[in-house]
Design a protein that fits this description.
The protein contains 13 helices and ten strands. The protein is of the alpha/beta class. Helix 6 links the parallel strand 5 and strand 6. The chain is globular. The termini are far apart. It holds the Pfam family DctP.
Amino acid sequence: MKKLRFMLLVGFLALVLVGCSNTSASTNEMETYTIIAAHSTAETTSFNEIFQYFKTEIEAKSEGRIKVEIYPSAQLGADRELIEGVQLGDVTMSLHSTAPAVNFVDDVAVFDIPFLFPDKETARATMHVDSPFFEQLAQSQEEKGFKLLGLHDQGFRQLTTNGVKVESPSDLKGVRLRTMENPYHMETWRTLGANPTPLPFNEVYTALQQGTVDGQENPFELIISQRFYEQQDYLTETNHILQAIQIIMNQQFFDTLPEDLQILVEEVMAEAVVVGNEFIDDKEAEYKEIMTNADVEFVEITPDQLATFQESVSNVLDQISQEVDEELLNTLLESVQQ
């Protein structure tokens, strides 16, 4: 009888342990993760398209294990504040221009080389997630606490001005030009003869309206979404710098995800970048039409005029080459040439 009781007790304990084990496994399988995804632009931009695509696909493909909350229009801060938030872990993921990111990762400055990319196709091939350049840049980001998930672009930055038609660097003399808070952008325009005036993005429209600055430079999408064109007479298609956009996640958060979810996050974001790039391409003609209808005069510069701009800012490449990793820069330049 004692032996029977002992065997029954052992059996009962075994069932309890199995039950606990199953419960634990079930709990782990259903563990959920919330991604706070923030950007500083309007909901009509490619930034929001990328995050919306990512949210829809990742929530469906993860079967609810990942939830995404999107905060557009600088609700959680401007670009620099968002980058800080990602580094600290207060914001899980951010999508922003690389220009303010140089304050956190020196190597990101390679995107500030004037006239680096001849066209968007070359840029996108160079920045693709499977490229050697992307892999090296991702390593630089990881050392600072960022997981680089993708590189999008908003097209090239263009110059807009009020009262001054710019066809050559000499036309920029004394022009008060709003720039980003980036030393290489400021040096580019200072070298070209303008008076660079760094201002936060959300202050640009008022500065143009009040005449605090005479012009600004941004890609078509932002000129339209922020309605800068309403306060400008001319747009010179300089294509001076590609508006490279990086998508970063807090590295520590990424490392806590199970391996299958890490792979899923990377795959879905790669798809989302393609969606964002296509959105930009599809909208460009519409953006130009809006500005033309608003009586903005488009100024096309000749190849000889463009060469004058390019020659004038060759010193900026020299400055950047002293601050970034030499191997990374060489990989980038070789990729562009190929």
